[in-house]
Amino acid sequence: MKFLQQFSDELESLVSKAAPAVVAVEHARGHGTGLFLTPDGYILTNRHVVRSPRRLTVELHDGTEVRAELVGADAPTDLAVVRAETGSKFPTLPLADPHDVRVGQLVMAIGNPFRLERSVSMGVVSAVNRTLPLPDGVVLEGLLQTDAAINPGNSGGPLLNMRGQVVGINTVVLPYAQGIGFAVSATTAAWVASLLIQRGKVDRRFLGIAATAINLPPEQARDTGQPRAVRVLKVGEGSPAADAGLEADDLLLGIDERPVTNVDDVQRLLALATAPEVSLNVLRKGRRRTLRARAAQREHSKAA
Fold first, then answer.
1. Exposure check for the chain: N or C terminus, fewer CB within 10 A?
2. How far apart (Å, rounded) are the C-alpha atoms in residues 252 and 212?
3. What is the CATH number of the domain that holds 67?
4. 169-213 pLDDT, tens per residue?
């Protein structure tokens, strides 16, 4: 009983510390949740929460309502950033290191389901690196799956680990299932939010490949110095990848000397690249080689 009481006290303390950084986001067509990323009022939420950006209102933890403006949105990740028009020194929540997110880890969701403000639910990370197609044709990749209760209105709110760090942004719930919700990983949220704050949009570039992340066999992991890589499943005809000489079954290890371990890494490094060409570190039939690709601009990216 003493252990349970201590655990309960720690959960209560966690909620007390985290909740002030969580806000309700309201607009003419609906509502959702968001969280403060910076003390000067930048708020991370879901794109579908602010799809109608007119008359955006943010309700703070103490019930105060402030107007907000849309800074930018990114359809392929369903993320958006808005900024509170007044106020400063807002409480924030830190983003978790991706290496600290593991299946079976206890997590907590805080949000406003059905306008029930600051509701808290608890569960575990059920799976990582899930892929989910949406009805509008966008494919969300690198998602976390959780059994913490997520309902309409939780969208845009944080999924927290027991350290009070954000491991994901609650995004999708399967309406025909129970205990299956999805969150955009904090890793994805960090680079997308950074670009939205800096540029107001994510200029996406693509190679023209279909790909999937894989775990490398122990020997390959030792030789390459990384546990995972991205396997190329298909190369589009006439695509930048085809022009660069990339082939199906190639293992993509890195872009511009930075390692890639999942498809989100590929999209992130392509979006952050400033030079017209990128270098691709490839493992083909046991031999490493470097290819040069001129990644093209793409408005709506459904693959890498």
1. N
2. 10
3. 2.40.10.10
4. 999 887 777 879 999 999 999 999 999 999 999 988 889 999 988
Q: Would you name the residues annotated as active-site residues?
A: 48, 78, 155
Q: Are residues 67 and 148 in the same domain?
A: no
Same domain, 113 and 195: yes
Residue 136 CA to residue 106 CA, distance in Å, equals 32
* Sole residue written with tokens 């490398």: 216
Distance CA 110, CA 189 (A): 17
Q: What is the pTM of this model?
A: 0.85
Chain segment 234-265, per-residue pLDDT in tens? 999 999 999 999 999 999 999 999 999 988 89
Identify whether 233 is part of a domain: yes
- Can you read off the two tokens belonging to residue 238? 């006439």
Specify if 32 maps to a domain. yes
Q: How many CA atoms lie within 13 A of 219 on its CB side?
A: 1
Answer whether 47's CB lies under 8 Å from 119's CB: no
- Residues 60-69: what's their mean pLDDT? 91
Do 234 and 266 fall within a single domain? yes
Q: How many domains does the chain have?
A: 3
Q: Domain limits at 280? A: 205-297
Average pLDDT, the chain: 89
